[in-house]
Amino acid sequence: MGEWTAMTGRNPSAGNPSGDPWETVGDRFVTFTRLHADGVLPEVPCEACGYPTLPAAGRNHICVVCHWRDDGSSRDRPDVRSMENQGLTLRQAAAHITETGVFASQWHALVAPEYFVPDVKAARAELMRAYDGLGRTPLDAAVRADVQSRKTTFMYTIVHLMR
């Protein structure tokens, strides 16, 4: 049994057989919530994408992966609209994240095109893969370093495009 499975009983990268984005994000959220609660990870997972990117829950931080503003929306109420997040619900955000990598729909490219250009999309995909690796082997120092490196690369890519 792998390190991740032994610690949490689930495998975040095994995917969700139903293909439902809400359930897939939910599985990831549960995994990283457990790792945070066990003291393995200092960050809490984003309610929208499930990746552990936030220093605290519900404090208006913005997720580095999907750019959801953590306004206190709850997975217990997935169909409540978030005015801080273009009026989308968490369930809608999960579907958009599966499709585009960010919580917003493609029309958001008109106001934030930097999130949708190929270089940024590729850097985001690499960061998401690194986080998935962290979910599988959270105690592996090389995996943790990879997440930090991918996070830096992703942010640099966005900043570079905005110049």
Short description:
46% of the residues lie in helices and 3% in strands.
Essential attributes:
163 residues; 3% strand; single chain; 2 strands; 5 helices; disordered N terminus; globular; mainly alpha; 46% helix; two-stranded antiparallel ribbon
Report on this structure.
- With about 160 residues, the chain is mainly alpha-helical.
- It has one domain.
- About 45% of the residues lie in helices and about 5% in strands.
- The protein is built from five helices and two strands.
- It has a two-stranded antiparallel sheet.
- About 35% of the residues are buried.
- Residues about 1-15 have low confidence and may be disordered.
The biggest beta sheet reads: 2 strands, antiparallel
How much helicity do the residues have? 40-55%
Order of H and E elements: HHEEHHH
What share of the residues does DSSP label as strand, in percent?
Answer: under 5%
| Distance between the amino and carboxyl termini | 47 Å
- Described by the principal axes of the CA atoms, the overall outline is globular
**What class do helices, strands and sheet pairing give?**
mainly alpha
- Rounded radius of gyration (Å): 15 Å
Query: How are the strands ordered across the major sheet?
Result: 1-2
Write down the overall mean pLDDT. Answer: 85
Number of helices: 5
The count of DSSP E runs of length 2 or more, i.e. the number of strands, is 2
pLDDT < 50 runs, ≥5 residues: 1-14
Number of domains: 1
Oligomer: single chain
